[in-house]
Amino acid sequence: MRSWLSVNGEAIYGIRPWKVYGEGPTQVAGGSFSDAKDKPIVADDVRFTTKGDYLYAIALDNPPQALMIKNITPEKPGKIKSVELIGSKNKVNWSQTNLGLSIQPLPSCPTLQAVPFKIVVEK
Are 94 and 83 in contact (CB under 8 A)? Predict the structure, then answer.
């Protein structure tokens, strides 16, 4: 956990919730002692945070193929200016349509789980 936070802490420390908590197919079971009922998370499970001018989309697992984030459209939150993978100097190939933000897989990620993308929305 310490090594993950040393790379990705900017998506966690001092953040605020975004308008949407998250998206993805995995539903978390509620109630006491429900952890045995939880299904494994997948890359399509994404959680959102925000800080200043940045929106962070955290894929809960390493995306093996293109990641489509359905809650990031030109309508909401707006047209995307840039996307980067925190902790990586690799260029992120992405596109945005009315269906959402599509992020192409990267050759390598600094972390294997909870992969955070830093997104700048045009003002």
Answer: yes
What pLDDT digit, counting tens, does each position of 42-61 carry? 778 999 999 999 999 999 88
- The 10 Å CB-count burial string (b at 16+, else e) for 34-57 is eeeeeeebebbbbbbbbbeebbbb
Whether the upstream peptide bond of residue 77 has omega within 30° of 0, thus cis, is yes
pLDDT level of residue 29 (50, 70, 90 thresholds): low
Q: What is the rounded CA–CA span in Å between residue 60 and residue 44?
A: 8
Regarding predicted confidence, which is higher, 13 or 16? 16
- Is there a contact between 44 and 31 (Cβ–Cβ < 8 Å)? no
For residue 89, CA distances in Å to 18, 34, 97 come to 26, 39, 25
Structure tokens at 8: 């990705």
Q: What is the DSSP letter of 7?
A: H
Which CATH fold would you assign to the domain 2-121?
A: Immunoglobulin-like (2.60.40)
| Token pair listed for 52 | 């200043």
